[in-house]
Amino acid sequence: MSYAQYTFGRTYTFGAAPSREARLARLDALATLMDTAFIIPGSNVRFGLDALIGLVPAIGDAITTAISLYIVHEARQLGAPRHIVFRMLGNVALDGLVGAVPLVGDAFDVIWRANRRNMRLLQEWLVRTERRRSEHTEAWWPRLPRAAEQSANK
C-alpha cells in the first residue's frame, strides 16, 4: 500500500475527493469560525477570527483576505457561476479594503461578515439550482409513461 492510500486508522483516504456536502459543511464551518464563532458576553454581538486576526496591522488583514478568497475559490470549484463569484469577490474586496483601516476596519469586520454573506450567496444559488433541476425532472417524468404508451400503440 502506498503512503497516499494509507488511511491512518480513519475513514478518510488521501487523494479521495470529499463529497459536495462535505465541502459545503467545511466551508460553512470556516465561514462561521471567521465571522460569528464568538459572542461578546452580556450582548448579542457575534464576531469571529476575522476581527481578531485583523487587529494585527497589515499582515492580519492579508491573512483573513486570503482565507476569504479560499472560500470563493471553493465556490467556483463547486460550479458557482461567474456572477455569483464576482459578487463574492466584491464582498471580500470591500471587507479587505475597509478592514485595512485600523480599529474602524475591525468594527466593520464584525458588522459586514463577508464570509457568512458569501456562504449565503453560495447556498441560495445551490438551492435555486436544485429547485430548477427537480422542476425539470418533474416536468418530463410524467410524460415518460405516456410517450412509451404512444410508441407501443403505433
How would you explain this protein's 3D organization?
By secondary structure, the protein is an all-alpha fold. The protein has one domain. It has helices spanning 20-35, 49-53, 59-77, 82-99, 104-112, 114-140, 143-153, and strands spanning 38-39, 46-47. It has a two-stranded antiparallel ribbon. Helix 1 runs antiparallel to helix 3 (59-77).
Could you give the topology of this structure?
Layout: H1 20-35, E1 38-39, E2 46-47, H2 49-53, H3 59-77, H4 82-99, H5 104-112, H6 114-140, H7 143-153
Antiparallel strand pairs: 1-2
Helix percentage range: 55-70%
Order of helices and strands: HEEHHHHHH
Question: Number of helical runs?
Answer: 7
**Class inferred from helices and paired strands:** mainly alpha
Order of strands in the sheet with most strands: 1-2
Low-confidence stretches: none
Number of domains: 1
> Looking at the structure, what is the overall shape?
elongated
**Overall pLDDT, averaged?**
86
Gyration radius, to the nearest Å?
22 Å
Instruction: Assess the beta-strand content as a share of residues.
Output: under 5%
Distance between the termini: 58 Å
Major pleated sheet:
2 strands, antiparallel
Number of strands: 2
